[in-house]
Structure formats: structure tokens, C-alpha cells
Design the sequence.
């Protein structure tokens, strides 16, 4: 893998092809006499030792992982890869504890092998690859596979009768969970380097994993070594799924070079269009997205909802904070009627919440939005970046918890923004419509809004970084417990205008803060 690929080339050609975006548990081969994979000789292992290994690695020049037998791997294209099945009877730990592990094969899209070992009593033994662990369908290359190909990653399944798959590590430092609703969607990453900058983004790689089996009372332990041109790192991940999927992460990071933009606890998702920007659609479905907004819980306690955009050019938004309580990319819209997709199941896509487990200090939650016209391109990234500069030789430790959930794990007693719509501003039906005015309509629901009478003197609190605001109104939708707010914004040019809004009654906030980046570009699509 070339670490200096552009983001668009990397995502389109490797990780986020339809193969991975619609990744689901695959049917299993029939049981036979096959046994779990063979293991190599034992070697001492500890997280302290892994941390020291990462530190020493950062002090040496970077060496990119090399593919083995590339002439064979190029034959394992998208269609061939879809035929590969890991043999169920070769599953690791199928008869031990609550979780079992299966392995991904290498292919044209995943050429760099990762070393995978199992840990017991402080000793690690490498899992040895063999083509006999897999079935390959009708592919001719299967007869020529050597015994030193290696694995591309692994997936974790339950050992109960459902054999539910709930975690997968595959490609660079990416990993995924189907969350509480059993449907893959957005991805998490070990680290993000240079996302959204003019120069090519860097994609560090998990080069090795060590897996320590779970017991009935303890989570699965996953240790990982990360390496890239600018950074190396040691990761300790405790993973379990009590309802949703929970992952406690400790990342010890060592900078090989100065890093202009370091992204901690990054996540990547897809947003093409929703009810907000449906005028950009080239498809019959009402909405297409894996996530529709960024949720923030700031160090001061404010709750913020930022609907996503599909901008005409790359946009990076920074939300300064001091010791944030959490942030995440969410799929709030859970209504099938708004997607009409019987294949993608967008209404079941997981949400991902990051909860710091220790103070992170000053920094920024950054949201990078990249234009797209395809649902197969993950074009949204969110992460935390520390305020302090990352210099060559510096080291960092971050501890955080990942919640793969359907709803926010720590909901506030506030109304939530459930829809954002755009249209022409001014008085309906008047011709010609004003050229630069956009009507923005926000629907709020939940929290104290359900208790209010329609005559309650609810106020829309509204401001914008630029442009003129007019015609602001807030009222209860007849026959519902929802409240609607709308206003017109007049902003010329193409520069964004950041708009903040919430509902209050007297001095009491009734809703979270709706924070939106209005793009005057959208207004041109309405004409």
C-alpha cells in the first residue's frame, strides 16, 4: 500500500468499495474434519513490550509493508473475493468462551499481510496461514496458493446458536461493527493523519494483532501495532457487546515526524444526500447516507447537533473544546420510508460515539466533508485533534471508549433536531423568488417539548456568522408533539455561513443547539 495515495484514490480503490460498505456475515461452509489453524512457537508478550516496540519503531526510518506473491493477489478481484469463505470448522475458539474468530484472506484490494497471534498466560503464538482454511468457489488461483500468503484481517463472532458477527478489522487501520442493529455502516480507524489537507492523506496500517480470548466475565482483548510514515503506535482494545458493542481503547502513539494534523479516535462515514440537500440527488431513493449528523457533548455541557453536508469542495469545520465529554457520527433517521432501500438497510446503520476516559485537554473536534456523487465513497471524517503541536519524537497516550449504538448512550433531557430542510426564501408563490434568500426549516422533538401546550411562548434563538436573518418563527405542528422553527437567510457569494439555533422558554433551553453550515451553493440548485 502506497502511504501517499490520495484519499479519493485510496477509498475508491481499496477500503470502501461496495465489497466493504455492504459487508455482512457470509454463509459458512459445511462442517468437516478441518481443525482450527496451526500456531507457531510461543514468544513472550505484554502490552508494555508492545509499547516499547512501537517506540523503537518510530526511531527508525519507515518501511512500508510489502505484498507477498502480488502476481497471485491481482487475480483475486472483487468477484473472486466474494466467493472466498472461511471454513466454519476452522474457526478459532469456536468451543471456548463467548466469542470466536475467523480470518480474512488477502486479495487485490487487501494485499498487505498482517501478522495475527493468540495470547495466553503472557505468551504469544502466531496463527499460521494455510489455504486449507478457506474455500474459494470456482476460482482457478486456489490451486496455486502457497502456504506463506498471510491474512488480511479478522472478524469476531458469537459462539451461540446465532453466530452473530459483531466486529471486523480489515484494511489499513480501519475496523467496523454492525452495532446494536446488526448492520455494517460507518468505520472507525486507529488514527488519521493529514485528513482534509491539500497534500495527500497518510494511511497508517495495523501491521500485527495479538488476540487474547474472552471468558464469560471478561471482554476480548485485541492488541495492535500501528505503523506509518509519520507515526507508530501500540493499541490495547477491550471489546464486548452487552446490547450494543463497546470497545475500550488505549493508544500509545509515537511521532516519527512532525504531524500537521493528527486525528484521534477517527471515524469515517458516507453522506450523499438527505431531506436537507435532496436537490443534489441523482437517484430515485429519498435519502442515501450512513450517517446524517455529528453530535457533540462539550466540556461545558452543551449538546450540539450538526447536520452533514455534501459540499461543492472539501470543507473542514473545527469545534474548539476543553476536555470534551464525547462526540460521534449518528444515523438519527430510523424510518425505512425515508430510504426505501431493501438492500442497504440504511435505517439500521450503526452510530458511533467516542467517550474520553480521561481528560484530553484543549483541542478540536474536526469534521471533514468531501464532495461525492456516489454512495460507495465514504466522504465524511470526524476526529479529535489536540491543540498542542505534534513534533518529531513526541509521544501521546489517549484512552477512550467507542459505543457502536443506535442512539446516543448518554441522552440529554432536551429536544433533538430530527429534520433540516432547505427551500426558496421569501413569500411562497411570489414571482420571481428572491435570488439570495434560502428558507431553512428545522423540526425538533422529544425532551420537554412533549410537555408543552401549543400556546407556550417558545422562542427561536438564532444567529449566524454572516448574512441576514429574517422571518423567524417557532410553533407546534398541529396534532403532534413536534415543534417547527423556520427562518430565511440571505447570504451572497459561495462562502459558508455558520448558523446556530435552539428553542427556549424564558431562560430555559428546550432543545440541543442546532449548528449548521449553510452553503449558498445549495440555493443555486433550487432554481
Sequence:
Amino acid at each position: 500500500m502506497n502511504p501517499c495515495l490520495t484519499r479519493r484514490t485510496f477509498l475508491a480503490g481499496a477500503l470502501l468499495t461496495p465489497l466493504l460498505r455492504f459487508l455482512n456475515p457470509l454463509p459458512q461452509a459445511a462442517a468437516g474434519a478441518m481443525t482450527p489453524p496451526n500456531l507457531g512457537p510461543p514468544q513472550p508478550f505484554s502490552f508494555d513490550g508492545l509499547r516499547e516496540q512501537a517506540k523503537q519503531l518510530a526511531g527508525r526510518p519507515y518501511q512500508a509493508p510489502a505484498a507477498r506473491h502480488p502476481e497471485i493477489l491481482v487475480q483475486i478481484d472483487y468477484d473472486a473475493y466474494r466467493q472466498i469463505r472461511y471454513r466454519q470448522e476452522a474457526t478459532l475458539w469456536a468451543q471456548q468462551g463467548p466469542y470466536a474468530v475467523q480470518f480474512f484472506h488477502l486479495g487485490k484490494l487487501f494485499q498487505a499481510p498482517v501478522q495475527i497471534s493468540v495470547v495466553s498466560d503472557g505468551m504469544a503464538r502466531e496463527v499460521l496461514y494455510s489455504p486449507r482454511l478457506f474455500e474459494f468457489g470456482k476460482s482457478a488461483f486456489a490451486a496455486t496458493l502457497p502456504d506463506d500468503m498471510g491474512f488480511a484481517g479478522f472478524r469476531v463472532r458469537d459462539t451461540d446458536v446465532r453466530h452473530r458477527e459483531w466486529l471486523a478489522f480489515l484494511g489499513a487501520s480501519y475496523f467496523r461493527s454492525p452495532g446494536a442493529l446488526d448492520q455494517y455502516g460507518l468505520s472507525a480507524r486507529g488514527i488519521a493523519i493529514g485528513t482534509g489537507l491539500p497534500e495527500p492523506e497518510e494511511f497508517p496500517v495495523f501491521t500485527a494483532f495479538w488476540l487474547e480470548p474472552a471468558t464469560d466475565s471478561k471482554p476480548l482483548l485485541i492488541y495492535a501495532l500501528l505503523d506509518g510514515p509519520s507515526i507508530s503506535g501500540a493499541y490495547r482494545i477491550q471489546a464486548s457487546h452487552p446490547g450494543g458493542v463497546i470497545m475500550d481503547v488505549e493508544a500509545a502513539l509515537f511521532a516519527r515526524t512532525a504531524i500537521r494534523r493528527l486525528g484521534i479516535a477517527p471515524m469515517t462515514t458516507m453522506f450523499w444526500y438527505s431531506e436537507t440537500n435532496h436537490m443534489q440527488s441523482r437517484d430515485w431513493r429519498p435519502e442515501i447516507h450512513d450517517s446524517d449528523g455529528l453530535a457533540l457533548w462539550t466540556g461545558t455541557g452543551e449538546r450540539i447537533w450538526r447536520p452533514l453536508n455534501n459540499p461543492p469542495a472539501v470543507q473542514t469545520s473545527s469545534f474548539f473544546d476543553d476536555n470534551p465529554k464525547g462526540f460521534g457520527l449518528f444515523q438519527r433517521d430510523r424510518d425505512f420510508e425515508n430510504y426505501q432501500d431493501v438492500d442497504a438497510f440504511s435505517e439500521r446503520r450503526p452510530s458511533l460515539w467516542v467517550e474520553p476516559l480521561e481528560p484530553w485537554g484543549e483541542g478540536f473536534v474536526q469534521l471533514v466533508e468531501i464532495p461525492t456523487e456516489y454512495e460507495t465513497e465514504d466522504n465524511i471524517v470526524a476526529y479529535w485533534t489536540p491543540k498542542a503541536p505534534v513534533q518529531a519524537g513526541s509521544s501521546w497516550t489517549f484512552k477512550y471508549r467507542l459505543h457502536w449504538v443506535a442512539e446516543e448512550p448518554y441522552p440529554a433531557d432536551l429536544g433533538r433536531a430530527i429534520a433540516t430542510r432547505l427551500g426558496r426564501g421569501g413569500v411562497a408563490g411570489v414571482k420571481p423568488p428572491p435570488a439570495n434568500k434560502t428558507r431553512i426549516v428545522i423540526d425538533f422533538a422529544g425532551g420537554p417539548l412533549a410537555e408543552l401546550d401549543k400556546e407556550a411562548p417558545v422562542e427561536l434563538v438564532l444567529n449566524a456568522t454572516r448574512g441576514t436573518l429574517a422571518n423567524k418563527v417557532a410553533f407546534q405542528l398541529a396534532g403532534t408533539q413536534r415543534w417547527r422553527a423556520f427562518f430565511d437567510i440571505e447570504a451572497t457569494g459561495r462562502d459558508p455561513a455558520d448558523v446556530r439555533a435552539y428553542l427556549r422558554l424564558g431562560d430555559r433551553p428546550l432543545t440541543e443547539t442546532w449548528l449548521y453550515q449553510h452553503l449558498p451553493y445549495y440555493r443555486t440548485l433550487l432554481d
Notes: The chain has two domains: 7-24+39-405, 416-525. The helical segments are 7-15, 18-21, 47-58, 70-73, 78-83, 520-525. The chain has six helices and 34 strands. The first strand starts at residue 43 and ends at 44.
